[in-house]
Amino acid sequence: MTKSAKSCIDLESVPFNFQLSGTKEESIISVTAIGGGLINDTYLVKSSLALEEVQQSMVPTECYVLQRINKDVFLNVEQLMNNIHKISLHLQSKNNGHGHCLSIIPTKGGRLFWERNGNNGEKEAWRMFNYILNSVSYPFATNNNFLYEAGRAFGKFQYDLRDFSCSQLFETIPDFHNTIKRLKTFRKAVKDDKFNRANAVKETICYIESKAYLASVIIDLMNEGHLPKRVTHNDSKLDNVLFDQITNEAICVVDYDTIMSGSMLFDFGDGIRSSNSNSEDSLDTSKMTFNIDAYQRFTEGFLGEVAPMITDTEKEYLHMGAIVITFEQAIRFLTDFLLGDVYFKIDYAEHNKLRARNQFKLLEGMLTKKDEMSLIVKNFNYMYVYLVIFILCLKVT
Hints:
Strand order of the largest sheet: 1-2-3-5-4
Structural class: alpha+beta
Largest sheet: 5 strands, antiparallel
Number of strands: 10
Distance between the termini: 58 Å
Mean pLDDT: 87
Shape: globular
Order of helices and strands: EEHEHEEEHHHHEEEEHHHHHH
Low-confidence stretches: 1-8, 51-60
Radius of gyration: 21 Å
Strand content: 5-15%
Number of helices: 12
């Protein structure tokens, strides 16, 4: 299976190479696979101290998130981790160091990641983060309040990074949200047809070409200077938000791998794409419907945070972010299918083909309600938000 978790020797020895608080080398370590990410391999680490505390109080304090970085996707791990470190420190400063964001656990040698030779002789790259207690993530929302909170989390992420210069960041995956180039890559994959799969998706290919105009909407506006470049998450899926297990309020955004310069529309759009659908892996494409009420709740949460910084052009085209990013994701899935499934993890031979069709079904729903989507952004009560912020500032002073 392409990009599946590689076999790992002595997995439980890996955590000892990091600065684990209060954990001695002879301590027992529990390392358990968690998450359903499509790129990296992720594990929950519990020290022996944590295991004892779990038995006594059910509140583990010595827990960490361990990840093996996919070096086929992230070619320069040093640059990747430098990006994450800078962003993490900036977000900590915005949250008064209360831990409501990811923090890198350095290696014993003081580095941001640790390397070793894997089973195949190639170097593996590992990293560790703090584990945020009493948090949970969801692959999809059970009610629209989660979508409001998710929108708020990604909006706050944008707002907190408004004064962080994009020039400080490396481009970890070049042209990640350049939909024009994604379309060119797709067309080349169709033309080359290395795995003789194009004939099986002829109708889908024709559909993509009929909607090709969408590829240039955001990129052209950015290139012409109408949309400002901002620090963007670029993978603003619902399951990249941690929620409080008790209150269901959003705690923070996680997964900083693709943080680069981009447009606010990217983060808004991918948030809508991921939160307005059934699972992208659903075998029943008919279930991929666009929920305008869910869209409204996410939008209200997002705009409530970015209202003081959003420009008029960003407001005008914000709804197009959802449409363009959904189109782009469909292209990416189908391109990967045509290229032999070299990027996304798959569970069966036609997995990426199904994912692409699900995205196109979602796209169709968005296009039929495009005017409603635009109106929701336009009718948002920005003045109310400005008033609340003004009152809060008066209280502080």
